[in-house]
Amino acid sequence: MTDTRRRALIAALVGVLGASVGVAGAGHVYLREWRRGFAWFTFVLGVGLVLVSVSVDPTTLTMASLTDLPSEVTAPIFVLLFLSAFDAYYLAARGHPRSDGLQCPVCRGELDPEVTFCPWCATEFETPPRGPETFDAESVRSETE
Ligand SMILES: [Zn+2]
């Protein structure tokens, strides 16, 4: 088993464990994908609050009704929770951060050579980062100019 594959499986496992206690983004925390994990956590929490508010009458809301939510509330939340676990698996399985592609010097995130900012940590670059194959030509040219 490769490191990437093992990392993906652990991320999925942590994500599912988190999901089983109602916490989205646990797998992302394992992957140190803080922003994405936090986004998942707040997204699922927000969806849950909206679903609860539309399906449970606030005037009759008790702790008992919160622990015995209708399936219209719990089913979508469970789907989202497990989607977040799958997302963590997908992130790890595709090998982020990759060592062979372009990497952000700040967060080691995978970069698109066409953009001048990092989509993972929003760091802006003065020039688009270069791959290893173009880096030498570029630096040589700028030295001779
Ligand atoms: Zn970055």
TrEMBL record:
<keyword id="KW-0472">Membrane</keyword>
<protein>
    <recommendedName>
        <fullName>DUF7575 domain-containing protein</fullName>
    </recommendedName>
</protein>
<feature type="transmembrane region" description="Helical">
    <location>
        <begin position="6"/>
        <end position="31"/>
    </location>
</feature>
<keyword id="KW-1133">Transmembrane helix</keyword>
<feature type="domain" description="DUF7575">
    <location>
        <begin position="100"/>
        <end position="126"/>
    </location>
</feature>
<feature type="transmembrane region" description="Helical">
    <location>
        <begin position="38"/>
        <end position="56"/>
    </location>
</feature>
<feature type="transmembrane region" description="Helical">
    <location>
        <begin position="76"/>
        <end position="93"/>
    </location>
</feature>
<keyword id="KW-0812">Transmembrane</keyword>
<dbReference type="Pfam" id="PF24460">
    <property type="entry name" value="DUF7575"/>
</dbReference>
<dbReference type="InterPro" id="IPR055997">
    <property type="entry name" value="DUF7575"/>
</dbReference>
<dbReference type="InterPro" id="IPR006311">
    <property type="entry name" value="TAT_signal"/>
</dbReference>
